[in-house]
Predict the structure.
Amino acid sequence: MEWSDEAIVLTARRHGESAAIVTLLTPEHGRHAGLVPGGAGKRARGLYEPGNRVLATWKARLEEHLGHFACELAEPVAAQLLDEPLRLAALAAAAAVAEAALPEREPHPRAYEGMRALIAVLTAAEHAVTDWAAAYARWELDLLAELGFGLDLRECAATGRNDQLIYVSPKTGRAVSAAAGEPYRERLLALPGFLLGRAAADLPQILAALTLTGHFLARDVFAHGPHPTVGEPAARGRLIDRLRREGA
């Protein structure tokens, strides 16, 4: 068995003395792991940084085997962000979320293209923190939809109207208007206007958006994903902590 595909590095874990088990996100073969002999050595270490784009070839005797990767660097994304620790934290969070959420060897080209688009925003120097952080929040929202857990933000679940949508039901994932949600506001999640294209994003709104997506990721995805966990990947939590400090 053999295939070649473009890919984004999600994780690289040491295996033995110098090998690594590398997990890639590809458009045609989904989230896919493989063994890289020497992948944890000095020469290859920079190649398998989360977020880097590579050209990968996978080989195995049988399709169900772990197999081996051979990769060429296509874009050193992580190296471009070494002097931008906050953006680098967002890249690490996206890689960790994708690794925790996406099923193994199941193609999700929309998730791959979404991550490529997010990387383009993260590496564009002209974007302010609110630009790329808002793009990250939208990426998580789109990932939920890709996995079949999309939120219905088109109209109020109670009235059917599409104005004054400021809440989301934590049970149904449907939008709720200000008037309909007022009696239950303590139990509802905030719906930031920028997710509806009705307001500019600021850091408090972005943090509210990450609380919103984080609730549904934890409930519907991480708890039932390929590596079931309680809560969120640590890299996502670190990003949120850094964004809070940035906005303080």
